[in-house]
Amino acid sequence: MARISLAPRRTLFVRAVEWYSKRTYGKVMDPTMAMAHNPRVLSTYARFEMSLKKWKKLDPELKALAVMASAASIGCSWCMDFGYWENHERGMSPQKLRDVPAWRDSDVYTPLERDVMEYAEAMSATPPTVDDDLAGRLLSALDEAAFVELTEMIAVENLRSRTNAALGLTSQGFKDSCDIQRPQTAK
């Protein structure tokens, strides 16, 4: 149960944000409604998220695995739910998405993907537990620009996950729409 009302005062700005969210994601996202209690926070955060979409140095699948591994280690069910849906929509392997919380026991990941998820967990620990060997392996596989983007995306996911967890935001059912079997069309 959310610790804050998800029904902020419906100003013109909030209605515009609701419209955009429904159009883009199919529903109004709970973190958006929580932040809407402070329009300056919501506006700043929205600009921040739009800027993140312009980062293109890191492979999108590695970025997705890093973000989801960070969310899983922090325990943000909202982030895991949305991350599964968002990356499923992009065509990422459902098995890879499902196995993120137990990536060490799964055989679907490459060594680089495993290093990325280990790095995400190490960065998300309190205090962070990143070691030189892991960072060195990642720098050998990625260029420095991609390594910086990876590091920042994990830090961003820590912001998202810790905010959502503190506000009591939980899964909103995004993943459920991915698991619906589509009927076969007759030929």
Topology of helices and strands:
Blueprint: H1 12-25, H2 30-35, H3 39-52, H4 60-74, H5 77-89, H6 94-99, H7 111-124, H8 132-141, H9 144-167
Helix pairs in contact: 4-5, 4-7, 4-9, 7-8, 7-9
Structure characterization notes:
With 187 residues, the chain is mainly alpha-helical. The chain has two domains: 12-54, no CATH class; 60-167, AhpD-like (Up-down Bundle), CATH 1.20.1290. It has nine helices and no strands. It has helices at 12-25, 30-35, 39-52, 60-74, 77-89, 94-99, 111-124, 132-141, 144-167. It is globular. The chain starts with 11 loop residues before the first helix and ends in a 20-residue tail after the last helix. The relative contact order is 0.16. The mean pLDDT is 93.
Q: Which characteristics define this entry?
A:
187 residues, mainly alpha, 2 domains, 62% helix
CATH topology of the largest domain: AhpD-like
Quaternary state reads: single chain
At the first level of CATH, what is the class of the largest domain? Mainly Alpha
Question: Could you say which overall geometry the principal axes of the C-alpha atoms support?
Answer: globular
**Are there runs of 5+ residues with pLDDT below 50, and where?**
none
Strand content: under 5%
Major beta sheet summary: none
Give the C-alpha Rg. Answer: 17 Å
Helix percentage: 55-70%
Q: How confident is the prediction overall: mean pLDDT?
A: 93
Order of helices and strands: HHHHHHHHH
Count of distinct structural domains: 2
Rounded to the nearest angstrom, the distance between the terminal CA atoms is 46 Å
- The number of E-state strands comes to 0
Question: Total helix count?
Answer: 9
The CATH level-2 architecture of the largest domain is identified as: Up-down Bundle
| Structural class by helix and strand composition | mainly alpha
Going by CATH, the homologous superfamily of the largest domain would be AhpD-like
